[in-house]
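Consider this record:
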Amino acid sequence: MKEGPDITHAAALIGEPARANMLVALMSGKALTATELACEAGITLQTASAHLGKLREGGMLVMRRQGRHRYFALASSEVASALETLMGLAARSGHLRTRTGPADTALRNARVCYNHLAGDLGVQMFESLTARGLLEVTPSGLGISQRGTPFFETLGIDLAALQRSRGTVCRECLDWSERRSHLAGSLGRALFSRVETLGWARRDTTSRAVLFTPQGLDQFHSTFPPYRG
């Protein structure tokens, strides 16, 4: 390809198995140390450090220092979105991990996708919002409708703060397990934060799964009723 962006470099960075495992581990939205990422990838710390250097140079990761420790995180929501899309492509192509079990079911039901809710419940939330006209397609993309403004404010979302932020407020993210869209952007992040703050759900400490309490799940279904179209 002689014109346009060169995708081969980014593809090569993501395509190496150890680097792919480290990137997926960071889809939880948490910053991790090189030691933690080495464990996720099943490689030595020295090898992990070399891979992390390449990912930083390639714009995939950022590094932050806190005391004596260095923490690594995904560089942006664009990186997370690309990884989620690739996971969906891999799933549709039949390239799935062989290990399955309760964790796999939990991840498909609800999980963290960088900083917003994904999985079956993430898709349900997005489809419920669009079906009720709380989100709408505008010339500039997906946005909050006039009807949606009081709904989100009642939930405790500071829409004025979202509008002032530099990032995209509403964005579709293709869900790898459901193969439909869930809500990303600053609104998606704010809604997931409210789910946690209200005590409806918590993040699993050993995976990206989001675990709802029975009462929290009832509240979620009441707030974002399934679309029956």
Observations:
- The mean pLDDT is 88.
- The radius of gyration is 18 Å.
